Amino acid sequence: NSFCTLLGASGRRSMLRGVARRAVCASSRSTARGVAACVALSVGPSPAVRAVASYGRVTDEDRRWWMVHLDCAPDVNPGTFVSWLDSCGTHTTKKLVERNVWTIEQVANLSSDQVDELRYREGCVHMDVVWEHARTIISLLNARRSAAGSDTELQERIEALRRKRELERRRDQLLQERREQDSDREARLAELRRTIAAKKAKLREQQAKARAAADGADDDGDGPAAAMDDMDRDAGRK
């Protein structure tokens, strides 16, 4: 109370304004932190942001989020381009490509000396994060490739079996069509044979009638001449 008395009314008002201003600032900062936390939770922590925030010191939490990120990217494989890796920016990508390093698998196979050279001599400040990311996920990527290879092999076997069954079905269909064609051909040949036999029989009949008619005409022409010969022979005997 004595202190407030010494300050006077103006002093008290100034002190109260300062307290109120500090309270407002603290409230604003807490509100901003809350909004940022809500945005981070809604968007989800990015592996790149986490790795950069750790200043190159990769933690188990970073590795866990890398695994989560990998689960959300089923199309990633050991042959994916290096720019997919965490903290692999344009400069790092360029330096890796200059060294003929294009894929995640190649990054994982780099030695620590090569990583240090890229980091300290080439200016790739986050190369250790890139390397650690590749080494962390390469085993899962290889397992994914093996599983994909097994699925591909199984799919190829299924396709081969389908082709085989289709060929067998087509072969049976061709054999059935051939049998039907053979049956039709035999029926046509039998009908043709009957037609030819009927025509031959009719032709023989016509030939027989013509021959009989010709033989009858010969018999009619030879009858009077034979009778005259007989009469001449009888007169000579007398």
Beta-strand fraction estimate: under 5%
Helix fraction by DSSP (H/I, runs of at least 4): over 70%
Largest sheet: none
Query: N- to C-terminal separation?
Result: 208 Å
Shape: rod-shaped
CATH domain class name of the domain at 60-148: Mainly Alpha
CATH architecture of the domain at 60-148: Orthogonal Bundle
Mean pLDDT, to the nearest integer, reads 73
Q: What structural category arises from helix and sheet content? A: mainly alpha
Radius of gyration: 56 Å
Number of helices: 7
Region (Disordered): 200-238
Overview of the molecule:
Residues 200-238 are annotated as: Disordered. The protein is mostly helical and 238 residues long. Helices cover 82% and strands 0% of the residues. The chain contains 7 helices and no strands. The longest helix has 111 residues, at 127-237. It is rod-shaped. Residues 1-7 and 35-54 have low confidence and may be disordered.
Task: Give a short overview.
Helices cover 82% and strands 0% of the residues. The protein has 238 residues and is mostly helical.
Essential attributes:
82% helix; rod-shaped; 238 residues; DNA polymerase, domain 1; disordered N terminus
What's the layout of helices and strands?
Elements: H1 2-43, H2 47-53, H3 60-71, H4 90-98, H5 104-108, H6 112-121, H7 127-237
